[in-house]
Amino acid sequence: MTVIIGCGNLLRSDDGAGPMLIRKLWELGVPPGVRLADGGTAGMDVAFQIGDAEELILVDVCETGAEPGTIYELPGEEVETPPLKDVNLHDFRWDNAIALGRWLLKSRFPKKVTVFLIEAENLSHGFGLSSTVEAAIERLANELLQRLGGIVSET
Amino acid sequence: MKKQEVISKSKKKEIKVHSLGRVEGDLDVKVTIEDGVVVDAWTEATMFRGFEMILKGKDPQAGLIVTPRICGICGGSHLTKAVYALDTAWNTEVPPNATLIRNIGQAVETLQSIPRWFYALFAIGLTHQNYASSRLYDEVVRRWAPFEGEHYEIGVTVSAKPVEIYAIFGGQWPHSSFMVPGGVVSAPTLSDVTRSISILEYFRENWLEKILLGSSIERWLENKTWEDVLAWLDEKPEHRNSALGLFIRYSMEIGLAKYGAGPGRYLAVGNFFHSQKYRYPTIEGRNAALFARSGVFDGEEYHDFDQSRIREDHTHSFYRGSGSLHPFEGVTDPIDPVEGQKEGKYTFAKAPRYDLPGVGEISLEVGPLARQVIAGRPGAEEWQDYDPLFLNIIKEVGPNALVRVLARLHEAAKYYLRVREWLKQIDLNEKFYIKPTELPEGRGFGATEAARGALADWIEIKDGKIENYQVVTPTAWNISPRDRFGKRGPIETAMIGVPIRDPENPVELAHIAQSYDSCLVCTVHAYDAKSHKELAKYEVVKF
């Protein structure tokens, strides 16, 4: 099984790209063996979504100074953030969740973790994605469906 | 998609990733210490909370989507009060099944929070090296040390179980929007109900009775007084050695029973509705239909809760002007903190107050202790929750950090029983939703008890759009700053008089902040009252 988790806060404009991508994939329809989850801002629960998955795909936004809408693909080990001892339950993100999952799930932890990051344009308070990030999640949705053997929409 | 647009990066580089979690941002608690005792305190929320502005002008149902995202750890509670705000504004009919499922969702989210908060947030502080001389220290570390303690892992793992029940009825947890005006959108089957029961039993067998209580739920709930609790401790080794038993004994030894009282005045807005008595939700009919009652306890007497008596004072908050408004009249007009500081303002949190008849506006503590004190009010209907234990405890030993934590652990037993009962009452052949008429004008009030306390929404609808939306969170009640009379908020009050063993390492202050479980990442800054020099900065889970 492959689990795709979109993380982010819908109340912070482009930070909602992860959850919005999950909705897009849901509408397009994913092939059997793929499970979608809206990770939102609840970091620790990301870890509980991934037990027994072969592969985990995480999607979030980033801020690197690159062109808005740029999509990065990173191996999970590169962004995993241990140690966990300093982490506050109220400030727990998915990069901590990967580390938590590895500790908690042991052999049930996914063999492969891939992280997609979308360069944000606007992270201010508000609801709705900028058009560049909207286009980026469209591209990423199709890319993911292609890789997972799903039907790609004609756009 | 063109492959080259996917840039593979294997070399390490500083990338700021997001999940900008809590809209409210961080909490700084500043205290001044004189001769080893805290003499003053200020709570400062350092980030602006702007969701009221996001909601203005939106579709009335936007609150169901937006408010569950205010918090990454109590979204179901936000959904619960948002839906009741709309139910009351639109005069909906809510079928009994929907009320039961809403109750279940609300309760399992709180059940989830109890072990997660205890192990991942609170008990970590108990393993602090400051307590190494305690006789029980080695045992506490053996059990509760983060990631290594014997019970830490089971506690964190089991915390995921109750919300599996939420996901069965709500599609997902967190951030579900399955409660809608007029009911819920789920149509559960018999196997959904039986699966939920088996998950709940797993929670009881593997953690609640075996690890937390060391006794049956029923035996623990027989305790009606502090004396009963002490007798229960001595009754059996299993009781003494349970998590609850160890926590009580250790806390008494390390002094958690001696500080952190808070204002000693409590508010509960009430929780869980009688499925028949709240078929037609109204603001006025709310109190009489509550299973876990609402109310105010002023330290001496009980008073009925009336939402029209709530005010938000923003004299010391970074909003334009000063004054104290009811949330229906609430205004969110932020100003630059630098400007605000010139007027003596120091936080983005407003100061919720309750206008008690004959007394005036007072700060009130909310949370599990508040709920359990209100549960001790005599005169409950036969079907309502009546539980005198914590009224007795605060009278016998006073409120303190230990008692606040104990109230929260106590609720695990009560909530388990409630969910079990509601699951039994679902009638799979009856309705779960009745389509409401979407009224273009109206006012609504919805409230519930999140794990960490009273949570309420006020909505005003005009021309089919949101004219005004105000959310008052439990964190706002507890971390509220001073009001226009200069009166401190609950956590500010709880800090006063606390003896600090090591001013370079004021772990006592962290325990108090954690006992309130504010919904913000909390940092405590300690200053010397005479030199104004910063003595220590203490992030609540850092070692």
What this model shows, in words?
With 155 residues, chain A is of the alpha/beta class. Chain A has five helices and five strands. Chain A has a five-stranded mixed beta sheet, with helices on both faces. Chain A is globular and about 40 Å long. The mean pLDDT of chain A is 87. Chain B is an alpha+beta fold and 543 residues long. In chain B, α6 runs antiparallel to α8 and α14 packs across α15. Chain B is globular. Classes of the chains: A alpha/beta (155), B alpha+beta (543). Chains A and B meet through β2, α2, β3, β4 and α4 of A and β1, β2, α1, α2 and α4 of B. Chain B: Its main location: other. Chain B: GO terms for molecular function: ferredoxin hydrogenase activity; nickel cation binding. Chain B: Belongs to the [NiFe]/[NiFeSe] hydrogenase large subunit family. Chain B: Keywords: Iron, Magnesium, Metal-binding, Nickel, Oxidoreductase.
List the helices and strands and how they pair.
The complex is a heterodimer of chains A (155) and B (543).
Chain A: E1 2-7, H1 17-28, E2 34-40, H2 43-49, E3 55-63, E4 71-75, H3 76-79, H4 94-105, E5 112-119, H5 131-148
Parallel strand pairs in A: 1-2, 1-3, 3-5
Antiparallel strand pairs in A: 4-5
Helix pairs in contact in A: 1-5, 2-4
Chain B: E1 6-8, E2 16-17, E3 27-34, E4 37-45, H1 51-55, H2 62-66, H3 75-90, H4 96-126, H5 137-144, H6 150-158, H7 162-170, E5 179-180, E6 183-184, H8 190-213, H9 217-221, H10 226-235, H11 237-241, H12 243-254, E7 266-268, E8 271-273, E9 290-292, E10 295-297, E11 302-303, E12 310-313, E13 324-325, H13 337-342, E14 351-356, E15 360-362, H14 368-374, H15 389-396, H16 401-425, E16 442-450, E17 453-462, E18 465-472, H17 474-478, H18 490-495, H19 507-516, E19 522-528, E20 534-539
Parallel strand pairs in B: 3-19
Antiparallel strand pairs in B: 3-4, 5-6, 7-10, 8-9, 10-11, 12-13, 12-14, 14-15, 16-17, 17-18, 19-20
Helix pairs in contact in B: 4-5, 4-6, 4-7, 4-16, 4-19, 6-8, 7-8, 8-16, 14-15, 16-19
